[in-house]
Design brief:
alpha/beta; 157 residues; 32% helix; 4-stranded mixed sheet
Length: 157
C-alpha cells in the first residue's frame, strides 16, 4: 500500500492506494484518524491523481471523482457505496432513500452502518447522506466537516 498526506480546506487528508486503486481516503482530524501501517510506503507520485482530483474538488472545478477504487466490502456494502455515487453534488439523500434505492427499504440501519464503513470519504460521497428529519448525522470526519463539504458543494454548483 502506498500513501500520502496533504492539507485541504477541511484539514489534513490521508489517502492510500493499492495496485488496483484508491483504498482509503480519510480526514485526519475527525473521529477516526488513520495511522499508516508499518509496511505502507509514503509515495506522493502514486497519489498524484487522487491529490489532483481532491484539489479540483476543493476549487469547485470537480463535482465527481474519476478514480479506480479498491474497496473491499460485503455485497451489501458495495451496493450502498455504489448508490452513494449517484447522489449529485450539492444534494442529499436520507438513509431510508438509499435503502429504497438498493431495493432494501427496511435496511435503513444497515445502510447507515455501511455508510459509516465507507473507506474513501469524499470520493464516495457519504457526507451527502442525512437523517430522515433532514438533520446531519454521524460522519467519520466529524459533523463540522460534513457541514462544510455540503456547504462547499452548494456554493460550487
Amino acid at each position: 500500500m502506498k500513501y500520502d498526506i496533504w492539507d485541504s480546506p477541511w484539514g489534513e487528508i490521508l489517502a492510500a492506494v493499492t495496485d488496483k486503486g484508491l483504498a482509503l481516503l480519510a480526514f485526519q482530524q475527525g473521529a477516526q484518524p488513520v495511522t499508516p501501517e508499518p509496511h505502507w510506503q509514503r509515495d506522493a507520485s502514486a497519489l498524484a491523481q487522487v491529490r489532483l482530483q481532491c484539489r479540483q474538488y476543493a476549487a469547485g472545478e470537480r463535482q465527481a471523482f474519476e478514480l479506480p477504487l479498491d474497496m473491499p466490502g460485503t455485497e451489501f456494502q458495495r451496493q450502498v457505496w455504489q448508490a452513494l455515487t449517484t447522489i449529485p453534488s450539492g444534494e442529499t439523500r436520507s438513509y431510508g432513500e438509499i435503502a429504497r434505492q438498493i431495493g432494501r427499504p427496511k435496511a435503513v440501519r444497515a445502510v447507515g452502518a455501511a455508510n459509516g464503513r465507507n473507506p474513501v470519504a469524499l470520493v464516495v460521497p457519504c457526507h451527502r447522506v442525512i437523517g430522515a428529519s433532514g438533520n446531519l448525522t454521524g460522519y467519520a470526519g466529524g459533523l463540522a466537516i460534513k457541514q462544510a463539504l455540503l456547504s462547499h458543494e452548494q456554493r460550487a454548483d
